[in-house]
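Recap slide: FMN-binding glutamate synthase family protein, sequence and predicted structure.
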Amino acid sequence: MGWVKNLRDEKVRTTTMQLPQKIAAVAAAATAGLAARDLTQKKHSILRNYPVAGHLRYAMETIRPEIRQYFIEGDGEGRPFDRTTRSMIYQRAKGLGSATAFGTESDMDKFGYETLAHSAFPLDHIDIPFRATIGGPDCKKPYDISRYNISDMSFGALSANAVMAMNKGAALGGFAQSTGEGGLTQYHLRYGGDVIWQLGSGYFSARTKDGHLDRGLFKEKSQIDNVKMITIKISQGAKPGIGGELPASKISAEIAEIRGVPRGQDYISPASHKEFSTPTELIEFIAELRELSGGKPIGFKLCVGNHTDILAICKAILAVGTGPDYIIVDGAEGGTGAAPVEFEDRVGMRLTDGLMAVHNALVGTGLRDKIALGASGKITGGNDIVRRLIQGADITLAARPMMMAAGCIQARVCNTGKCPVGVATQSQWRQRALDVDEKAIRVRNYHDATAKEAENLMAAMGVDHPSKLAPHMLRKVISATETKTYLDLFTWLSDGELLEEPKGVWAEYWKQASADNFEPSTRGTRTRI
């Protein structure tokens, strides 16, 4: 039987020798097929000229952002947030602090670089709580709020786990979370954190079938104890002038039910509201919502487009005799889950300009002591908070920094639903990576550390309350040889100045503004075909 064994062994050797040849043949056939496809397809010119090899270009392009972020970019180069800023957020979130050694790496001679003015006699510490009270003359339930809070981010743009982690973090740290225009959901109420309910033009979670506000539903939900304030969203910095966008990949059955929108297609909210169209109607709508909510603070959020819009609202407030309890100014540098690049890059005022415009408008019309001001847009560190307080804000809010505290790595794929860390996705598999309890602690840690650093900076400046901060305490490099304070660089109106004898460009803005419409100013327009 030896010959049988020899025959079997020979067959095994033959098969073993043929296996690599078969693999090579299959690979060659596949390559030939791919080459044939590349040569005949018409969408990609590179593949028609360089079949097979051209795919390397697309592969490298796909991983380019990751290669650049992790291996090429310097500490101060990344955008929207550089590596130094991201590292600071991560370190604080983990409770590790963010102190560095050997001095600053920033270019302090760079045009536009800003510094705070310290005092020769700094304070040891600040005893006054780092909080503000929101509520004007007509508010029955004013809210004591942290000066640093979670800005507007919707369930849908964020995963349920991310929303819950932030809500629990807010509950642990005593600060507030805004729902974003996606509406009030169970996830915003799960852990008892204070909530700012945002109403966008879609009126999600209090919407009628024809897209108007459901007064009865709003009244019911607005009186939930955890809902502390209600914000009407007029516009946002990253895409002012258009509605919020939710890609089809993120519209789950749950989100479709909450928002009352169809599945299977991108949904873009209306560009403007159906409940009001003039400054006067806006103010009357605010008064109505305040009444329906049982007297809670009602305000609005906008990215400033021009000064006349703000002054038109101020004129409406004076005419109607009531107004918002607060206004949140969102800078053009703010973030979003999805927006056309032209709107992200080229529309709207940056936060510095918009915030000071609203502050001056309220001061000039004698309304500043009745209406609180919030600021949002790339507020990551204690210095950012103090800068915005100097420029006119009472409170600040942050979105993307809070996302990073919850685990965001700035992958910039928020609009695809493929967030690698489970923050900005509706994939159950992806969001399981985000542990609610662990990330809640990190969100709380980051808030507390950043708010504390803002207090420390104020103490170094010799002030124990934000009301004592002044424009001369913030300096900007304006040339290679000169810096100036904000007091010297900008116009600051005096109380009630616009009601008496407005001067300069503000006089023209005031003249153009009307409580009856939001029509753009005609100043400087020319006849065209």
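The longest helix spans residues 2-40.
The mean pLDDT is 90.
(End of recap.)
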